[in-house]
Design a protein that fits this description.
Layout lengths: L1 E16 L4 E14 L2 E7 L9 H8 L3 H5 L4 H7 L4 H17 L9 E3 L2 E3 L4 H13 L4 E5 L5 H11 L4 E5 L6 H13 L2 E5 L19 E3 L9 H4 L5 E4 L1 H4 L2 H13 L3 E4 L6 H7 L8 E2 L16 E3 L2 E3 L2
Parallel strand pairs: 5-6, 6-7, 7-8, 8-9, 9-10, 10-11, 11-12
Antiparallel strand pairs: 1-2, 2-3, 4-14, 13-14
Helix pairs in contact: 1-4, 5-6
The structure holds magnesium ion.
Length: about 325
């Protein structure tokens, strides 16, 4: 078995603004494994928030390729790299290779629901974006917010799309002293769920008040190691393969989290359809799905997923 990795840049069709930065392209690392005439492919999106870059991820991966040649499998891989983007690309490449070697055929659901993300903008512009997304068939919208104009933005969107399911993602931008009041306001506006309001280091505060709406861990939840810290503080966990370090740990995390009473969200980074296909096996277990990463790209991979009317279609 031979393995290699390379970087790819995918321009976005429009800027992607969240609380911590604005991005204009997706920078990926792709791993390709080749053996017995079969090629397996996995991709990852290195994320600066977690100390990752394209260069650091390639540096993590390259020393492992000799071990892959010597028979490193997914089970052994779990202890050779920490949870994160590098392990994700290699784990998914190996899983893809195994699947193809078995001659297995796709038996998953033909489509999955997916929310549509609205990036940060002024309230009127977010209301217009919301109305457009609903007109195109979306039924759940995820609003990216920072610490400014929270009520104004959500109220404007709610007035524009009274029947839509709304999810808020603050990407760690809020503070504890305003959180309790904001949660009540969001509940009154009929928001279904709030994702990662506080910095990951401030999770403890979430255990100190009753939540009027469910709160979901994203930046605070990477792998099973985080579960003891999340219990009693979050109701929902956002599983992303770039955080778990691949589908192997993602399945294990999903299992263990459900056993502990958490609900699941399945999320993604800015990515191509390859990354969404890799996460597909977890789709039916999640109550919230945020799989619209590829819709932000100006151009997707060959054989892309199809997105439309609030769903994503395998073929
Ligand atoms: Mg998030």
């Amino acid at each position: 078995m031979q393995a290699r990795c390379f970087a790819e840049r995918w321009p976005l069709r429009t800027a992607f603004a969240i609380s911590r930065d604005v991005r204009t392209e997706a920078q990926l690392v792709v791993v390709e494994v080749r053996g017995e005439g079969v090629v397996g492919i996995g991709e990852c999106t290195p994320y600066a928030r977690y100390g990752e870059s394209v260069a650091s991820v390639m540096q993590q991966l390259r020393p492992l390729f000799a071990e892959v040649a010597a028979g490193l499998d997914r089970t052994l891989l779990q202890s050779r790299l920490p949870a994160g983007a590098a392990r994700n690309a290699l784990d998914c490449a190996l899983a893809d290779w195994e699947f193809k070697c078995r001659g297995a055929v796709f038996t998953g659901p033909e489509s999955l629901p997916s929310m549509q993300t609205l990036v940060i903008d002024d309230p009127a512009a977010m209301a217009v974006a919301a109305r457009n997304a609903i007109a195109q068939g979306a039924d759940t919208l995820k609003l990216k917010l920072d610490d400014q104009q929270v009520y104004q933005r959500v109220a404007a969107v709610r007035a524009a799309v009274p029947a839509a399911q709304l999810v808020i993602d603050a990407n760690e931008a809020w503070r504890a002293d305003t959180l309790v009041d904001r949660c009540s306001q969001l509940e009154e506006l009929g928001v279904a769920m709030l994702e990662q309001p506080l910095p990951a280091g401030d999770d403890e505060f979430l255990g100190t008040f009753p939540h009027p709406l469910p709160i979901c861990a994203d930046e605070s939840c990477h792998s099973r190691e985080d579960l003891p810290h999340l219990l009693g503080r979050y109701e929902i966990l956002n599983i992303k393969l770039d955080k778990t370090g691949g589908i192997t740990e993602a399945r294990a995390l999903a299992e263990e989290a459900e056993a502990q009473g958490f609900q699941l969200m399945l999320g993604c980074m800015l990515c191509t359809s390859r990354a969404i296909r890799a996460a597909w096996p977890l789709g039916e277990r999640a109550c919230f799905l945020d799989l619209d990463g590829p819709t932000w790209l100006a151009k997707d991979v060959e054989f892309p997923l199809r997105f439309g009317a609030g769903r994503v279609y395998w073929s």
